[in-house]
Amino acid sequence: MPDFDALERNDVTVEIVTLAGRQKVTAEEGTLVRDFKAANDLVGMKIIDEDSNVLRDSDTIKDGMQLYVSAPKKNG
To answer: What domain count does the chain have?
Structure first.
Protein backbone atom coordinates (compact mmCIF):
# COMPACT_ATOMS: atom_id res chain seq x y z
CA MET A 1 0.00 0.00 0.00
CA PRO A 2 1.42 3.43 -0.87
CA ASP A 3 2.38 5.83 1.91
CA PHE A 4 -0.10 8.65 1.29
CA ASP A 5 1.20 10.59 4.30
CA ALA A 6 4.51 10.97 2.46
CA LEU A 7 2.76 13.06 -0.20
CA GLU A 8 2.01 15.74 2.37
CA ARG A 9 5.52 15.91 3.86
CA ASN A 10 7.88 18.64 2.82
CA ASP A 11 11.59 18.83 3.31
CA VAL A 12 12.69 22.06 4.92
CA THR A 13 16.17 23.45 4.31
CA VAL A 14 17.72 25.03 7.38
CA GLU A 15 20.87 27.11 7.18
CA ILE A 16 22.97 27.08 10.32
CA VAL A 17 25.25 30.11 10.57
CA THR A 18 28.17 30.01 13.00
CA LEU A 19 31.51 31.75 13.33
CA ALA A 20 33.07 28.75 11.57
CA GLY A 21 30.86 29.19 8.50
CA ARG A 22 27.50 28.16 7.07
CA GLN A 23 26.00 24.72 6.93
CA LYS A 24 22.79 23.77 5.13
CA VAL A 25 20.84 20.85 6.51
CA THR A 26 17.53 19.32 5.51
CA ALA A 27 14.79 18.39 7.95
CA GLU A 28 11.40 16.92 7.31
CA GLU A 29 8.53 19.28 8.06
CA GLY A 30 7.00 18.26 11.38
CA THR A 31 10.31 17.13 12.87
CA LEU A 32 10.53 17.75 16.59
CA VAL A 33 13.11 20.34 17.63
CA ARG A 34 14.61 17.70 19.97
CA ASP A 35 15.19 15.33 17.02
CA PHE A 36 16.57 18.14 14.85
CA LYS A 37 19.08 19.08 17.54
CA ALA A 38 20.20 15.48 18.02
CA ALA A 39 20.61 14.88 14.28
CA ASN A 40 22.70 18.03 13.77
CA ASP A 41 24.89 18.04 16.90
CA LEU A 42 23.01 20.99 18.42
CA VAL A 43 22.14 19.45 21.79
CA GLY A 44 22.51 22.13 24.49
CA MET A 45 21.84 24.95 22.01
CA LYS A 46 18.75 27.16 21.90
CA ILE A 47 16.71 27.25 18.69
CA ILE A 48 14.99 30.59 18.18
CA ASP A 49 12.35 31.46 15.57
CA GLU A 50 11.97 34.65 13.55
CA ASP A 51 9.82 36.22 16.30
CA SER A 52 12.58 35.67 18.92
CA ASN A 53 10.65 32.86 20.61
CA VAL A 54 12.79 30.10 22.07
CA LEU A 55 11.48 26.81 20.72
CA ARG A 56 10.89 23.95 23.13
CA ASP A 57 12.11 20.44 22.34
CA SER A 58 8.49 19.40 21.78
CA ASP A 59 7.86 22.09 19.10
CA THR A 60 7.88 21.10 15.44
CA ILE A 61 9.69 22.55 12.45
CA LYS A 62 7.39 23.96 9.78
CA ASP A 63 8.02 25.07 6.22
CA GLY A 64 8.88 28.75 5.91
CA MET A 65 10.28 29.10 9.43
CA GLN A 66 13.48 31.04 10.00
CA LEU A 67 15.49 29.38 12.73
CA TYR A 68 18.47 30.72 14.59
CA VAL A 69 20.85 28.75 16.78
CA SER A 70 22.08 30.34 19.99
CA ALA A 71 24.99 28.81 21.87
CA PRO A 72 25.03 29.30 25.63
CA LYS A 73 27.71 31.52 27.14
CA LYS A 74 30.75 29.71 28.46
CA ASN A 75 32.69 31.21 31.31
CA GLY A 76 36.44 30.92 31.43
So the answer is: 1
DSSP 8-class letter at 52: S
Q: What global pTM score does this model have?
A: 0.73
Do 32 and 59 contact (CB within 8 A), yes or no?
Answer: yes
Question: Does residue 76 form part of some domain?
Answer: no
| C-alpha closest to that of 31 among 6, 55, 59, 56 | 59
- Per-residue HEC secondary structure of 17-40 comes to EECCEEEEEEEECCCEHHHHHHHC
Model pLDDT for residues 48-76, shown as the tens digit of each residue: 888 889 999 999 988 878 888 887 776 66
